[in-house]
């Protein structure tokens, strides 16, 4: 377990506690413990910088589970013993593992009386973390969702290219991927396309060998997939270079909800949100809880009201799929 400790300090009064008002200052800052799935990336860093840039008395400790779910129960017990002023969880797996689901805890939290916020959770309602986006149904929990609605993504994607059969490849251990694929299937009839899914095979430890990526991609091609979509998959994002390369070798365009797959690995198009902006939005919520005294459950689950369309022209040229002027007028184009 790796930990990174960063501190930003100033003098501000604080009023969130059922028992008593607490005052935070440079010598006694608010304690935030963030648990992340795969290192302190853009959202995590932006969350920390929000408090640093404003000289707010907030100290953030980051624990990275490095994609090891087996660490979550032990971290959960540590957090219950530490009782930080706020816990922040990154990702669906971490959030469910640390805070628990409504099915298991109802209105309560697995952390007891410790308030918590989540971020980078694509579908907190479908994953049973909260009741709704307007009312979480859990007084000590709220957070930020990050995925652009699937129907919006598909409509923009189909403005560029309309496949009859859209392929997806999922890690069976990732609930967010399953929920994303289920939503695609739910809207496929109205938008007149078919979803074709391939699943990676996990080993005895629940891990997936990246060598499966080209095999699964070839299977999708054999089944008639005309394009590949990545909507919510930590595994595919972690191995984005190999994923896009495998698709490109088969002349399959890759569309994604992850803008970094277009910027860094040559996917054709993305409709997504900036992880850094998600982190900053989560920090705004944290400030409301820590420094303004709001209970997390009084806050709605927030989402960004803007999203980005990113096009990779080098990939478009390689695939001989050129975007329409309607998209070029709103998109960011990268080479």
Tell me what the structure shows.
With 335 residues, the chain is an alpha/beta fold. Helix content is 37%, strand content 21%. The chain has 13 helices and 15 strands. It has helices at 42-53, 72-82, 92-99, 102-105, 150-160, 175-191, 212-222, 234-238, 240-249, 259-265, 275-292, 313-319, 325-328; strands at residues 2-8, 12-13, 23-24, 30-36, 58-64, 86-90, 116-121, 141-145, 165-170, 194-199, 227-230, 254-256, 269-272, 308-312, 332-334. The strands form 3 sheets. Strands 10-9-11-12-13-14-15 form a 7-stranded mixed beta sheet, with helices on both faces. The longest helix has 18 residues, at 275-292. The protein is globular and about 60 Å long. The chain starts with a strand and ends with a strand. The model is unreliable at 1-21 (pLDDT under 50).
């Amino acid at each position: 377990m790796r930990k990174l400790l960063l501190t930003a300090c100033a003098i501000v009064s604080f009023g969130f506690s059922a028992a008593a008002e607490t005052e935070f200052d440079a010598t006694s800052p608010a304690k935030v413990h963030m648990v992340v799935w795969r290192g302190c990336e853009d959202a995590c860093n932006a969350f920390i910088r929000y408090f640093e840039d404003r000289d707010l008395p907030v100290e953030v400790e980051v624990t990275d589970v490095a994609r090891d779910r087996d660490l979550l129960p032990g971290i959960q017990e540590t957090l219950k013993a530490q009782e930080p002023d706020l816990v922040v969880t990154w990702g669906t797996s971490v959030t469910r593992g640390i805070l628990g689901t409504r099915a298991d805890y109802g209105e309560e939290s697995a952390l007891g009386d410790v308030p918590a916020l989540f971020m980078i959770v694509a579908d907190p309602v479908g994953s049973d973390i909260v009741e709704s986006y307007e009312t979480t149904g859990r007084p000590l929990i709220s957070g930020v969702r990050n995925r652009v609605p699937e129907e919006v993504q598909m409509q923009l994607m189909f403005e560029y290219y309309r496949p009859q059969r859209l392929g997806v490849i999922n890690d069976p251990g990732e609930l967010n991927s399953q929920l994303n694929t289920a939503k695609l299937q739910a809207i496929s009839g109205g938008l007149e396309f078919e979803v074709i899914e391939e699943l990676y095979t996990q080993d005895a430890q629940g891990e997936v060998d990246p060598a499966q990526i080209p095999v699964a991609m070839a299977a999708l091609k054999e089944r008639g997939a005309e394009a590949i979509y990545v909507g919510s998959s930590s595994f595919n994002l972690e191995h984005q270079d190999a994923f896009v390369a495998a698709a490109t070798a088969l002349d399959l365009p890759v569309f994604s909800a992850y803008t970094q797959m277009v910027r860094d690995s040559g996917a054709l198009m993305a409709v997504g949100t900036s992880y850094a902006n998600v982190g900053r939005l989560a920090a705004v919520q944290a400030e409301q809880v820590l420094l303004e005294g709001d209970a997390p459950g009084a806050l709605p689950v927030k989402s960004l009201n803007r999203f980005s369309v990113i096009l990779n022209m080098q990939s478009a040229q390689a695939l001989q799929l050129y975007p329409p002027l309607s998209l070029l007028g709103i998109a960011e184009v990268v080479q």
